[in-house]
Q: What sequence folds into this?
């Protein structure tokens, strides 16, 4: 297993589903879980109960421990964990907090934040209830049950209802049957970067396709020149994705230039014969001269790469950063099945100096240089992004790719 010394993600995407009793919140959440699961996403749910509730079965060992006076009990097996903890009497705080949980009582804020840490693998946490939070939320309004929203407007980005759109002026309205559209809206609000962030990426980030490999397993045929089923080369396919993120695109080559694409700049290795390390050093150095902050990296043999993967990596990086992500970190790298993918990554231009030093030491191993950097590794196993990491190394793999 690749050893990683970084702090865990401190938060993940959160969306509240609220509404009055019997409006259909639970049913909506069930359908959203199935839709997100179909997309390969991992979902957790936190339910807020406005009253006390019983969750432990009478007569079980854990129930007997609680009856005997234990403040809490936990039961675990290979497949699941059960925790039952009695809460102290809540201490109300009228002042609240200046954070996304503002409007909730202090004990509610503390409990929600603590519960969120129990699901570090979740792509999205859905929370049922909490109509007074400023967290991103959708409210359910069902005819014969309610006729208007009861949640605070801050953070609300949609209403799911069987009433007419005209009943909610200024609100984004979804019918109960529009599960895919509701799921898309949740992803857009909680996982996708805002338009202003995308403009910042376009101005501050460059992108690079590393295309200087020897292609020995392809008998010397340049992998970047292979055609997709649409008739575009792999390099053209990947650059089309990168152009949606940045207007500064580099094509990195060693000593032989294979493909030139309008709008892309050719960058050749400053230290030839060093493998991918030389390409990374060259594009990061060039980006620094171009006053870019970081570079989104892709190899030319991963035709399934999409722009959204880099937005996801950046989102994860910013979640663990207190200030400017690329002031705190040297990069963010994709991982799957305990295998790191250092050519599916975003690196700070500062890393160029470390890469150059490693090259001068005649050590061209990427793993060794990454150990000298502060890198966040994001595991994509089981996510909708995992298949994007597939690279084409042999004729057999290419033929399988063309067959779909």
A:
């Amino acid at each position: 297993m690749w050893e990683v010394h970084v702090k865990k993600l401190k938060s993940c995407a959160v969306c509240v589903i609220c509404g009055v009793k019997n409006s259909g919140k639970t049913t909506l959440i069930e359908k959203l879980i199935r839709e997100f699961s179909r997309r390969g996403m991992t979902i957790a749910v936190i339910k807020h109960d406005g009253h006390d509730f019983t969750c432990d079965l009478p007569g079980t060992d854990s129930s007997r421990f609680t009856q005997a006076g234990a403040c809490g009990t936990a039961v675990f097996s290979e497949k699941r964990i059960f925790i039952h903890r009695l809460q102290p009497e809540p201490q109300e705080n009228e002042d609240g907090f200046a954070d996304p949980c503002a409007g909730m009582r202090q004990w509610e804020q503390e409990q929600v934040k603590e519960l969120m840490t129990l699901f570090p693998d979740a792509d999205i946490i859905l929370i049922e209830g909490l109509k007074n939070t400023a967290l991103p939320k959708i409210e359910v309004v069902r005819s014969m049950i309610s006729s208007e929203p009861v949640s605070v407007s801050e953070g609300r980005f949609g209403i799911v209802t069987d009433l007419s759109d005209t009943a909610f002026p200024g609100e984004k309205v979804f019918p109960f049957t529009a599960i895919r559209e509701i799921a898309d809206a949740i992803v857009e609000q909680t996982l996708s970067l805002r338009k202003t962030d995308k403009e910042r990426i376009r101005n501050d980030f460059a992108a690079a396709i590393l295309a200087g490999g020897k292609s020995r397993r392809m008998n010397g045929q340049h992998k970047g020149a292979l055609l997709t089923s649409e008739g575009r080369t792999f390099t053209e396919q990947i650059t089309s994705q990168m152009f949606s993120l940045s207007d500064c695109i580099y094509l990195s080559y060693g000593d032989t230039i294979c493909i030139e694409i309008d709008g892309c700049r050719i960058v050749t290795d400053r230290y030839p014969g060093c493998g991918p390390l030389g390409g990374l050093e060259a594009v990061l150095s060039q980006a620094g001269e171009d006053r870019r902050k970081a570079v989104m990296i892709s190899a030319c043999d991963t035709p399934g790469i999409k722009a959204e993967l880099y937005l996801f990596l950046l989102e994860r990086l910013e979640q663990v950063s207190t200030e400017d992500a690329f002031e705190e970190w040297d990069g963010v790298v994709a991982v799957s099945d305990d295998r790191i993918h250092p050519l599916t990554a975003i690196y700070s231009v500062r890393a160029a100096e470390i890469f150059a030093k490693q090259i001068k030491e005649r050590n061209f191993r990427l793993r060794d240089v990454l150990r000298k950097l502060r890198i966040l590794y994001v595991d994509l196993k089981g996510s909708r992004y995992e298949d994007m990491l597939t690279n084409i190394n042999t004729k057999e793999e290419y033929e399988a790719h063309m067959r779909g």
User: Anything to note?
Assistant: Residues 136 and 155 are 4 Å apart (CA to CA). Residues 1-11, 92-104 have pLDDT under 50 and may be disordered. The first helix runs from residue 25 to 38. The chain has twelve helices and 15 strands.
